[in-house]
Amino acid sequence: MLAPHPFGHDITEQSLVERFSGLRQWEDRYRQLILLAKNVPALDDSLKTPQTELSGCENRVWLGAERLDNGAMHFYGDSEGRIVKGLLAVVLTKVEGKTPQAILEEDPLALFDTLGLREQLSTSRASGLTALAEGVLQLARRAL
């Protein structure tokens, strides 16, 4: 497996819901995103290619995926920005280990609404988040 990480396994959607459920202030959610970002392992430079770099993000972002033997997808990524890296962590938690078909049937950004994160994002970060979601969907479509 390329670039393993804890998202979707050790850090699950349910654990994120529990982590964010008591947070009412955006600053507290912001801190949690930074803490999540620390769990995203640095991507090896060999995986930071023009093919994996996303456009439309405030910071440089790389997103890649591979299809596992069981048919599920493993996503990996990195970003130069801490907040964007935290947003990436949430996206990875939502899509990791699912089949391409399951990914295409769900909104990869639905977890952001559940966690109360989407409404506080700046326009540029919201645009970057949309680019992340589209990147995930494109990788899932290619894997079909």
List its salient traits:
144 residues; mainly alpha; Sufe protein. Chain: A; 3-stranded antiparallel beta sheet; 6 helices; globular
Write up this protein.
By secondary structure, this protein is mainly alpha-helical. 47% of the residues lie in helices and 11% in strands. It is built from six helices and three strands; from the N terminus they run H-H-E-E-E-H-H-H-H. A hairpin with a 5-residue loop joins strand 2 (61-67) and strand 3. The longest helix has 21 residues, at 123-143. The chain is globular, with a radius of gyration of 14 Å. The two termini are 19 Å apart.
Spell out the blueprint of helices and strands:
Layout lengths: L12 H9 L4 H12 L15 E2 L6 E7 L5 E7 L2 H14 L4 H6 L4 H6 L7 H21 L1
Antiparallel strand pairs: 1-2, 2-3
Helix pairs in contact: 2-3, 3-6
Family: Belongs to the SufE family.
Protein name: Cysteine desulfurase sulfur acceptor subunit CsdE
Pfam family, one: SufE
**Quaternary organization:** single chain
Largest sheet: 3 strands, antiparallel
Rg calc: 14 Å
- Shape descriptor reads globular
Strand sequence of the main sheet, in spatial order? 1-2-3
CATH class wording: Alpha Beta
Order of helices and strands: HHEEEHHHH
CATH A-level architecture: Alpha-Beta Complex
Computed structural class? mainly alpha
Mean pLDDT: 94
How large is the share of residues in beta strands?
5-15%
CATH fold-level assignment? Sufe protein. Chain: A
User: What is the distance, rounded to the nearest whole angstrom, between the alpha carbons of the first and last residues?
Assistant: 19 Å
Query: What's the number of extended β-strand segments?
Result: 3
Overall tally of structural domains: 1
